[in-house]
Amino acid sequence: AAKNDGRGRYRFYSSDLHDKAEDRRQLEDDLRDALDRGEISLMYQPVVDAGNNLIAGFEALMRWDHPEKGPISPAIFIPIAEDANIISRLGEWALRQACDDASKWAGNARVAVNVSPIQFANTELAAMVASALSNSGLAPERLELEITESVFLGENADTDNVFATLKKVGVRLALDDFGTGYSSLGYLKTAPFDKIKIDQSFVRGATESGNRNAAIITAIVSLAQALDMETTAEGIETLDTLDLIRKLNVSHVQGYVYSRPLSNHEISERLARGDLHIMPTGHDVHRYD
Ligand code: C2E
Ligand code: MG
Ligand code: MG
Ligand code: MG
Predict the structure, then answer these.
(1) Phi and psi angles of residue 162, each rounded to the nearest 5 degrees, phi first
(2) Mean pLDDT across the stretch 137-141?
(3) How confident is the model over 161-190, as a mean pLDDT?
(4) What is the annotated signal peptide range for this record (predicted)?
């Protein structure tokens, strides 16, 4: 709504800003109760071994089904949760839920859980992870925590300590969205990552001739191999890109070309059948769920 600024002019711009801030505050309020109202859930996207099309694990991805607005993307609500001090509670819930779910799966598929840098600032994180593992009975080596480079921003002196404690607990660590943040290769010297996840932005358009992304992916893969880390290419949508990613020796693939995120029910049934083989298709890539 436009507002009269008192001098006879209407100030559309500031009132739009006001509406936006109001929307966000509303969303923040709604998010505070979302977990208790049962509106938050996890979906699981297969992570596939690029060499043999076998499922190696699943990434847990949070979903919010808003009662009026419908599904809201985590790209929108996670940053709000981080600003509003809700992320620790949501993150702990996701971790415990994912461990519970994975502990009931047939076989040894891994589960990867995204952890916000804000959770890393809490010295209790490693104890919470250990508790989630022992309550669920999930073997530590089946749990992978995904962290973005921004965890190294700022003078968070304890990051090294938290990593070391988590390695003692026995979980795996993955560096998420690699190459999009404030990349400094320095932290790779000491941080004990088991995997680098190559961000979608390098994958997109990687097949176009003259594109530099393929060269960058090659460099990331050789860096990871030298440091004894696995690689996952994120956001692979087409068979052409999958082809290229395989030629570049990326070890794992995650993307709509194999599967979009699935419910725990769907993957539990699949795993109960022992059906770990998954065929890439190029179809139906533009649905969101
Ligand atoms: P992310 O961790 O990098 O997760 C990968 C994102 O790529 C997911 O988006 C996934 O659905 C999407 N994706 C997978 N394959 C394809 C593909 O072939 N094409 C395209 N276009 N997208 C693909 P999603 O689920 O919307 O999540 C967005 C981001 O929200 C995640 O990025 C992660 O940073 C954050 N997030 C999600 N769940 C959690 C959570 O439980 N905790 C925290 N802290 N962050 C979360
Ligand atoms: Mg992730
Ligand atoms: Mg990612
Ligand atoms: Mg991402």
Answers:
(1) -60, -45
(2) 98
(3) 88
(4) none
CB neighbourhood size of 286 (10 A): 6
The answer to whether 241 touches 213, Cβ cutoff 8 Å, is: no
pLDDT band at 151 (very low <50, low <70, confident <90, very high): confident
pLDDT band at 158 (very low <50, low <70, confident <90, very high): confident
* For the CA of 256, the nearest atom of ligand 1: 18
What are the structure tokens assigned to 27, written together? Answer: 């969303």
3-state secondary structure of 285: coil
Q: How far is the CA of 199 from the centre of ligand 4 (A)?
A: 6
Please give the ipTM for the structure prediction.
0.98
For residue 91, give the 3-state DSSP assignment: helix
Between CA 47 and CA 273 the distance in angstroms is 18
Question: In Å, how far from its chain's centre is CA 39?
Answer: 19
Which residue has 């073997």 as its token pair? Answer: 139
| Per-residue DSSP letter, 199 | P
Token pair recorded at residue 225:
């191999």
Which are the contacts of 260, defined by CB distance < 8 A and separation ≥ 6?
Answer: 45, 287, 289
- Can you tell me whether residue 57 is helix, strand or coil? strand
For ligand 1, what atom is nearest to the CA of residue 116? Answer: 44
Residue nearest to atom 11 of ligand 1 (CA): 261
Place of tokens 């996890």: 42
The pLDDT score that the predictor gives to residue 182 is 72
Nearest to 60 by CA among 237, 286, 262, 275: 262
Spell out which residues line ligand 1, taking CB within 6 angstroms.
45, 61-62, 73-75, 78, 91, 94, 114, 116, 146, 176-177, 234-237, 254-256, 261
